[in-house]
UniProtKB/TrEMBL annotation, chain A:
Family that this chain belongs to: Belongs to the ETF alpha-subunit/FixB family.
Residues where FAD binds: 218, 255-259, 272-279, 293
Cofactor binding description: Binds 1 FAD per dimer.
Cofactor(s) this protein requires: FAD
Keyword Coiled coil tagged: yes
GO biological process: fatty acid beta-oxidation using acyl-CoA dehydrogenase
Protein keywords: Coiled coil, FAD, Flavoprotein
UniProt name for this protein: Electron transfer flavoprotein subunit alpha/FixB family protein
InterPro entries documented for this protein: DHS-like_NAD/FAD-binding_dom (IPR029035), ETF_a/b_N (IPR014730), ETF_a/FixB (IPR001308), ETF_asu_C (IPR014731), Rossmann-like_a/b/a_fold (IPR014729)
GO MF: electron transfer activity; flavin adenine dinucleotide binding
Automatic annotation (TrEMBL), chain B:
InterPro entries: ETF_a/b_N, ETF_b, Rossmann-like_a/b/a_fold
Domain Electron transfer flavoprotein alpha/beta-subunit N-terminal, chain residue ranges per copy: 19-209
Domain of life of the organism encoding this protein: Bacteria
Protein name, entry field: Electron transfer flavoprotein small subunit
A molecular function (GO) term: electron transfer activity
Length: 321, 265
């Protein structure tokens, strides 16, 4: 028993309080069994007071901050977190499932022989057994597995974005920042970053926060111009299936589904999408799905709120008027 | 004389129904689509004269998949198979892979797929780099340069595109997946049937039973429940006149439909 130390590792170098981190923070707060349990956010990078403030506003009990002024390096980040874990021995560590988060979690799981569960969709505290249960989908999301760790200290998991909600807690914050010093060693930078540049806005359309999306499948290949015109008219963002990417209809970073991203718009209009399970898992967060497909047996219809058996092109032409 | 460059590709066989909807394949197991993508790309990226070895931890079922690798142009295939390997999490899996890579020896580059479609953890590539204490470049979009000493890649990391270079040996993984064999020649596939697959067990790899399989794992699966990720909904079929249908759609988009949040206010 005893009090638990729950840690969230921010995967950023500067903007620590990302929506993703705040979502994980909110979940961690719900895992507190009592006031004595402590939820800390670990930040490595530049000193950003307003970011810390946001983390406290969203309920962090403590921030563990390791200042690192030189350019971000994943190897330094991993070694710094490794040193922190060794020193402070938290019980449970929650990582964002980004490249940085996953890499750090998996490396430290091997190094400290700590159980790690990937991409949890839920975490529960089991009072009877005094243990945490990590829940995650597997097998193309056809099953949910309940996983526990065999080791006691340093149990880890990663969490994808938009699985949990974030929630503002209070404006009456109490600053509680523990500074930590960790020196970078020369040998740490094995990986040379030749170039890092922010993706331009065009490449970075924030599809995750789009309210209305048009999802296109292979069948819409010949009328992408029309689709774009209509999307613009209604303020919709165009995304698509893997097939649409292969047909060069949309850019790869707009692929929805198992090998792409998951979205949760208010309205999702799909045109010419058959609805393979690998794709549908990417739109299951949509509040309302309108599916248009000429094949009345298209699997997508089973998941749709509104069914239109017709060619996408016909509907788009009408919408354009 | 400098020795040949040696690349090891780690692959996994997964149940067919996770990959192909139709009965286009006779086998019950097929190559994990992320591994297939990585394998075909690394074969294209490597220089002439590079030695390619594929290995896979798994039971009898993986042999078909390994034969396909031979048909794709891989030089050697190794099956890591032992009843003690069953039930491994990513710690125990990466340990067995490490022991096999050490047994092969002189490996310059290890290549993996991003994740498998059954386990879907995406952790093994990083875990393996830690086991071998070498750097790791994950989520590779393309290799811009590959030689005996270094590899340079491009990838997207969050909101940034990155060009990265690292000295070898290193572990890499590709981001994407495919279910399509680009060029698998039937004659070669036939020849591959006679290719002898090397099988290594726990003793061959000098592995202590407490370090592999469920015993060597730090996580345990308590239960697996059927899960319907996507809730099938009550449908409203719009099959009237197209103008009426689109009118309904317009109203929904413009937020004039109850139950949908409002826009443009």
């Amino acid at each position: 028993m005893g009090n638990k130390k729950l840690w969230i590792i921010s995967d950023q170098h500067e903007a620590y309080a990302t929506e993703h981190v705040l979502q994980i923070l909110h979940k961690a707060l719900k895992l507190k069994k009592s006031q004595e349990d402590e939820v800390s956010v670990v930040c490595v990078g530049l000193n950003r007071e307003e970011q810390f403030k946001t983390l406290f506003q969203y309920g962090a009990n403590r921030i563990i901050f390791c200042e690192q002024k030189s350019e971000y390096s994943i190897s330094f980040f991993v070694e710094c977190i490794a040193s922190l874990l060794k020193d402070k021995q938290p019980d449970v560590i929650l990582f964002p499932a980004s490249i940085t988060g996953k890499q750090t979690a998996a490396i430290l799981s091997v190094r400290y022989r700590a159980g790690l569960t990937a991409c949890c969709t839920d975490i529960q505290y089991d009072h009877d057994m005094d243990r945490y249960v990590f829940i995650r989908p597997a097998m193309s999301e056809s099953v949910l597995a309940e996983i526990t760790c065999i080791n006691d200290k340093l149990q880890m998991c990663t969490i994808k974005e938009n699985i949990f909600d974030s929630a503002f807690v209070t404006n009456e914050i109490c600053w509680n920042i523990a500074d930590y010093t960790y020196e970078e060693k020369e040998a740490m930078r094995k990986v040379q970053v030749l170039e890092r540049k922010a993706l331009n806005l065009k490449e970075r359309v924030d599809i995750k926060s789009a309210k209305i999306v048009f999802v296109v499948g292979r069948g819409m290949k010949h009328c992408m111009d029309l689709c774009q015109t209509v999307a613009q008219k209604y303020g919709a963002v165009i995304v698509g299936t893997k097939a649409a990417v292969e047909e060069k209809m949309i850019h790869e970073n707009r692929q929805i589904g198992q090998s792409g991203i998951s979205i949760s718009p208010d309205i999702c209009l799909s045109f010419g999408v058959s609805g393979a399970s690998q794709h549908v898992v990417g739109i299951k967060g949509a509040r309302l799905i309108i599916a248009v497909n000429p094949d009345k047996n298209a699997p997508i219809f089973e998941y749709a709120d509104y069914v239109i058996v017709d060619k996408g092109e016909h509907i788009l032409q009408e919408l354009a008027l | 004389m400098k020795r040949l460059m040696r690349i090891v590709m780690c692959i996994k066989s997964v149940k067919k129904e996770l990959v192909y909807q139709e009965d286009e394949y006779q086998e019950n197991y097929v190559m994990n689509p992320y591994d297939l993508y990585a394998l075909q790309n690394i074969i294209e990226a490597k220089k002439q004269g590079t030695e390619m070895i594929c290995m896979s931890m798994g039971p009898e079922a993986v042999t078909d998949t390994l034969r396909r690798c031979i048909a794709l142009g891989v030089d050697e295939v190794i099956q890591l198979s032992d009843k003690h390997f069953a039930g491994a999490d990513t710690i125990a899996t990466s340990y067995v892979l490490k022991k096999a890579i050490e047994k092969i020896g002189n490996v310059d580059l290890i290549c993996c797929g991003q994740k498998t479609v059954d386990g879907e953890t995406g952790q093994v590539v990083y875990a393996l780099s830690e086991q071998l204490n070498i750097p790791c470049l994950s989520q590779v979009e393309s290799i811009t340069d590959l030689n005996q000493d270094t590899i340079s890649i491009e990838r997207v990391n969050g909101d940034c595109s990155e060009k990265i270079q690292v000295g070898l040996p290193a572990v890499i993984s590709y981001r994407n997946c495919t279910t399509i064999y680009k060029k698998i020649n039937l004659l070669r596939l036939k020849r591959a049937q006679n290719h002898k697959i090397v099988v290594w067990n726990m003793n061959d790899l000098q592995i202590d039973p407490s370090m592999c399989g469920q015993k060597g794992s730090k996580t345990i699966v308590q239960s697996v429940k059927k899960h319907h990720a996507i809730i099938k909904k009550e449908q409203t079929i719009l099959d009237g006149d197209i103008k009426d249908t689109v009118h309904v759609v317009k109203n929904i988009i413009l937020g004039k439909d109850n139950g949908v949040c409002l826009y443009g206010e």
